[in-house]
Amino acid sequence: MRSPHVLISGASIAGPALAHWLAAAGWTTTVVERFDALRDTGQNIDVRGAALEVVRWMGLDDAVRGATTGETGTAFVDERGDVVAAFPAGRSDTGGATAEVEILRGELSRLLYEDTRDGTEYVFGDQITGLDDRPDGVAVRFARSPERTFDLVVVAEGLGSRTRALAFPDARTTDLGLYLAYLTIPRTPADDDRWRWYNATRGRQVSLRPDNVGTIRAFLGFLSDVRGLEDLGSHDQAQILRKTFRGAGWATERVLSGLDEPFYFDAVGQARLRRWSSGRVVLLGDAAWCASPLSGMGTSLALVGAYVLAGELTTRDDHREAFARFEATMRPYVDRAQKLPPGTPRLAFPRTRTGVTGLRTALRVAASPVAQRLGGLSGRFFSPPADEIDLPRYRSVITGPRIEA
Ligand SMILES: Cc1cc2nc3c(=O)[nH]c(=O)nc-3n(C[C@H](O)[C@H](O)[C@H](O)COP(=O)(O)OP(=O)(O)OC[C@H]3O[C@@H](n4cnc5c(N)ncnc54)[C@H](O)[C@@H]3O)c2cc1C
Q1: Domains of the chain
Q2: Strands 173-186 and 264-271
Q3: Fewest CB within 10 angstroms: 240, 322, 335, 394, which?
Q4: Which percentage of the chain shows pLDDT scores above 90?
Q5: Is 270 in the pocket of ligand 1 (CB under 6 A)?
């Protein structure tokens, strides 16, 4: 019997992870990516809780742990760079702003791509322009390639997915009123291996994080009531960042000088959809349920979701049943990840001097030995529990091409 052929759109984390599992079960996979090559930008991302288990089952545990950034914890600093409060890296799979496994997004994407490139057809520099969902398959039109028919289409294109609108015309995303710019700047002898996090007034934040390739990953975050800045060109975005962060203190000038090099700028938002599938088309990863970088859960949800979707598809005869089970398993996990701490992002990005002082006082308390002994207050402060999913063992994908629950 012919093996099902699945088209996956998006070659970041969720897409290649799904290709891994489907290929393990003997399915045929094609991944289409809008960019001309694998995107290697992005910063330190967390792999937490159940996602670590999934990585182990993928056989990528050693590779992922061997590529971590070496971040040892998080230090909140003041205008002079003095530490206000410090938190060690999470010792459990879930705790702390710095997770047990921190890896550059581009590195993890590359590992997943290299793991799957032999068993998967990758098409770069193309994208879906039309979907015709028929009883026996989906006819897909592309911007460049000729039309092809697939059994199923998985949209793993991130929060700003365009294909999502073709299958889910009513889908809307929520804007959290926050922008983040991600830069790479030279490392100096004064840098250490902690995530250093600085809040300035007017809802501005500057962060420096170590990486494992000899540079420093910086980000500039700011609250704004103006929408659509992510659609501007990088020249205009750089101007806005220079103006917004002028005189903000600490390492700001150093980070702003990195704006002459390519940087990544995005609006922070969430995707909350009532359903994740329509006919033979299903959403996966941030395209389905983006919880935002503030949750620290985007990559973990993508890895776990890819595993669950593949497990359900290769276990059941009917894709509709598989999609329903995928959603039932993932929905509670996603709901918890999307519940950001109360007041987010405003409390973490205070506008006034009083707000900054209040945040620092709260952080000092949370970092105190007493609070630490009371059970990892720090972990709950930063991110939702990441291991609260009872992962089914899909032997259909873990052990190879067998269809079994
Ligand atoms: C370049 C980049 C940098 C990032 N940096 C960070 C970071 O520093 N910190 C952080 O917390 N999160 C970052 N993220 C988001 C993070 O990767 C996700 O939250 C998480 O890993 C879930 O991944 P995903 O595969 O679902 O979606 P994403 O990682 O968003 O990947 C979506 C993929 O789909 C591709 N794509 C988009 N539209 C189309 C289309 N129409 N057709 C084909 N392909 C399409 C994109 O180019 C991308 O490769 C970044 C994402 C990207 C793409």
Answers
A1: 5-70+103-171+271-341+389-404 (3.50.50.60)
A2: antiparallel
A3: 335
A4: 78
A5: no
